[in-house]
Amino acid sequence: MQKITIRLKRPPDGIENWEQELLLDSPDLIVSEFHFTDLEQPTVLDGETIAENGYRCIVFEFTREWYEVLKIWNKEGRLTGYYCNINTLPERFEGGYTITDLFLDLWVFPDLRYRVLDEDEFKTAIAEGWISKEMAENAQKILAQLLERVEKGEFPPDVVKEYD
What we know:
The chain is α+β, with helices and mostly antiparallel strands. About 20% of the residues lie in helices and about 45% in strands.
C-alpha cells in the first residue's frame, strides 16, 4: 500500500509528521489510515476510552474545508467516535500534505453526544498571536457549522459513514 505523510504544524513552532497508509487521493478528499502507537496514555472522555495505542483510525481530509475527521475504532472493532480537527486547508507536497492546527477540536460520540475540546489552547493561541484573526474567525465559524450538523443529526458526512 502507498504511504502518505501528513505534516501537522502546531503554532507557534511545533511540527509533527504522521506516516499513514493512503486509501484515497482525489481533488476533494484524501483518506488515510493508521493505528495509534505512541500515545503516552489512553484518551478518556465521559468515562469512555476514545483513543489508545492499538486503536484504528481513518483520517478524512476534506481539501476544500477547514477541518478533518478522524474516525476511530477500539481494538475490538467498536466505533469510539469522531475527532474533528479544525485546521487550515491542506497544502499538498510530493508524497503528502501540510495542515496548520487551529487548536479548536470537536469530539463526537457515535450517539452524537459531543464535546468541544481545547478552547483554552485556542484562546491562548489568539492572545499570543500564534494564529491570525482571520484564522481564529474561520475556526469559530467551522466549529459552529459542525455543531449545527451534529445537532441536526447530519453528522458525520456520508463519506465518513461509509468507510469501515
